[in-house]
Amino acid sequence: MPDQMPPDPTREALLDAALMHVPFDGWSEAAFRAAVRDAGVDMALARALFPRGAVDLAVAFHKRGDAAMLERLARADLLGMRMRERIAFAVRVRLEVAGDKEAVRRGATLFSLPPYAPEGARLIWGTADAIWTALGDTERDFSYYTKRATLAGVYSSTVLFWLGDDTPDSSATWAFLDRRIEDVMRFEKARQNPVMKGVLAGPEWVFDRLRSRTPRDASDMPGRWSRPTPQE
Questions:
Q1: Confidence of residue 174 (pLDDT cuts 50, 70, 90)
Q2: Which sign does the torsion angle of CA 201, 85, 160, 105 carry?
Q3: How many whole angstroms separate alpha carbon 54 and alpha carbon 47?
């Protein structure tokens, strides 16, 4: 989830300054140094706020988008929408508040690099989690993870489509998104199917057992997890 602390003015100033350079230099050291210079911030303070330089700026840019999305969702009237409409609306809002498409493109390039790919995956997961939570899904059951994993795939594929979309008002992107939402709803329908409920019962039971376990009751687990008795 996005940071809940109030925005730090210096952090915001550095990010705003960086966005002037990212379209030309990417989320790079050059962009970071230019942002520090333009914002009039001491380099030592800038490094304290963003230890990895431009990489941390890119993370902050993504989280700023998540926070802006949540603000708009909090003001929106979602009660009259079906769930698929709510999900599509949330993803659309997230793209609309992203701001500079080139900054997003440069971020996608950065987080596709092996050293930063895990960070990118966490950010996308965080966006999916923020959407589901804003829509009221907070249950920590087996579907908590599958819903977010599915939506993360929908969101990431829609972002990539949006980056290459030059249709008026991104109309092709919204049509693409509507088709991808079928993936989410197909999973939801499958979970309600009696046959699939039986198939998922095993994984859900295992998940519930693992989630509820504490070290003190590990002794009653079979096999290699059993503690030896004095007779052994």
A1: very high
A2: negative
A3: 10
Instruction: Please report, for residues 7, 104, 151, 161, the alpha-carbon distance to residue 143 in angstroms, rounded to integers and kept in the order given.
Output: 33, 29, 12, 27
User: Global pTM?
Assistant: 0.79
Q: What letters, b where the CB count within 10 A reaches 16 and e where it falls short, cover 116-132?
A: beebbeebbbbbbbbbb
Angle at 171 between CA 168 and CA 172, to 5 degrees: 110
> Domain coordinates of the chain in residue numbers?
9-212
Residue whose token pair is 């197909």: 186
Domain 9-212, CATH homologous superfamily name and number: Tetracycline Repressor, domain 2 (1.10.357.10)
One DSSP character per residue, 97-160 reads TT--HHHHHHHHHHTTSTTTHHHHHHHHHHHHHHHHHHTT----SHHHHHHHHHHHHHHHHHHH
Whole-angstrom distance, CA of residue 154 vs CA of residue 184: 8
Q: What are the pLDDT digits (tens) for 104-131? A: 999 999 999 999 999 999 999 999 999 9
CA 121-123-129 angle, to 5 degrees, is 105
Contacts of 52 (CB under 8 A, 6+ apart): none
User: Dihedral sign, CA of 16, 18, 19, 21?
Assistant: positive
